[in-house]
Amino acid sequence: MLSPRSQVANVLHSVVGRGMPLAIESYDGSVAGPPEALCTIKIRDPRALNYVATAPSDLGLARAYVSGYLDLEGDIFTALMMLAGEHIGEVGWADRLRVLRGLGPKVLRPIPPPPQEVHPGLWWGLRHSLSRDSRAISHHYDVSNRFYEWLLGPTMAYTCAVFPNADATLEEAQEEKVDLVCRKLGLAPGQRLLDVGCGWGTMVIHAAQHYGVKVIGVTLSRQQAEWGQRRIAELGLGDLAQIRHDDYRNVIETGFDAVSSIGLTEHIGAKSLPAYFRFLASKLRPQGRLLNHCITRPVSSSPSRTSGFINRYVFPDGELESVGAIVSAIHDNGLEVRHEENFREHYARTCAAWGANLEANWDKAVAEVGEGVARVWRLYLAGSRLGFTQRRIELHQVLAVKTDEHGSSGFPLCRLDYSRPTRV
Prior knowledge:
This protein is an alpha/beta fold. It is 41% helix and 16% strand.
């Protein structure tokens, strides 16, 4: 019979989960928490406690989960919501030491992180240089096109969807998103569009197919470019659309009627934002429009974290700025801001739909990319959904224009209603 002091579940529950429908089960056979618990934390190996006790913020929990030493039974979003309410990432060192004293010295034995982790110190080269950006993008996007097809669905759109109504499907919402971007950019047949960070070509294909626009898409992911080019050929859009495996900074063409940046700004970095928007402005003709769509932080004064779970497992070198910083960078570097809106709740719903797709294809996904990578994605999608739900992160679209030498924007005097379809 274990003494209460040595029962792992009891010791942990004294710090986490009190008063909530959350239970803890441990490898030593101990159980703590209410019988009607909605979710259960299962500690399968003592190494899970090492990760949780010794790593900062949410990184320890992520390491324990990705390695399989810890499981979250029940709906993972609900479990994370309860753990976030307990501020598990903010447990002080006094409480951590109290837990460690109850669990014994073996917990502190150093162990390496899971192999899915990429430590920022391992990335050589200047941050946001062409070569380092290429490696960072490849880490996330060159996982497996088949995996992304199961995750994203037929649209292959990997950015926030815009749900036109409460009953809309993910596919309908993703089509609404790219069509909304087209409407905001005022696209018309014969115009030229540059889509930077084009992914698998969802925006490229939609603009060419439904608006008759000539489009160049650019992505640093070879797998994305190959998939998108095949899709363009299948649809017979080769005379209008192309996708290049290249860095956007290598685009030499100019005089575009519009530029779309959907989900790329997060990879640019705060110090590079002015140069980024100056470059995009230089690609536009006078009265040409820019639509920037990106995840932001709600508070400009809080630093963008660069060493937690997201940076080490999901988006190496990713940085989030406030919408104010984005708008200022656009405004100060050759463009006039005309419109802005926040789709935070839409992204929470998008992440929920992606998470449901992952669960529906779980066995296939594990066979394709391995259980560790699949666990990274399960945790990432549930955590992102929680972040958007609780306004820890947001999603903003900012529309801007490059005015001509006389200061004219080319916008009509009447207020534009972007909810109305304009495709031909």
